[in-house]
Amino acid sequence: MLGIRLEPELSRRLDWLARATGRPKSDLAREAIRRYLESNADEARRQSLMASRVDAEDMSSDDSGWTAQH
Fold it and tell me: What one-character DSSP code corresponds to residue 60?
């Protein structure tokens, strides 16, 4: 179970879409979260891999990304 608070405008938009599609708001929210997670999984894996490499190699992070330290 997950409870979330939405900004008023986002809540109004969700209400409208639920009425327009005849679907429960929870179905719409579940679908949106699923799509977000699927679309961001590759990036999360990439960042996790880079972070594990930092431990294995002598690397550091700055605003431009990960760089090897010599």
Answer: E
Distance CA 2, CA 53 (A): 34
Which tokens sit at 66? Answer: 């990960």
Q: Rounded distance, CA 43 to CA 41, Å?
A: 5
> Tokens in use for 29?
């929210």
DSSP string, the chain: -------HHHHHHHHHHHHHHT--HHHHHHHHHHHHHHHHHHHHHHHHHHHHHHHHTTEEEETTEEEE--
Please state the pTM of the whole predicted model: 0.60
Reported as a single tens digit per residue, the pLDDT across 2-32 is 899 999 999 999 999 999 999 999 999 999 9
- The token pair at 31 is 């679908």
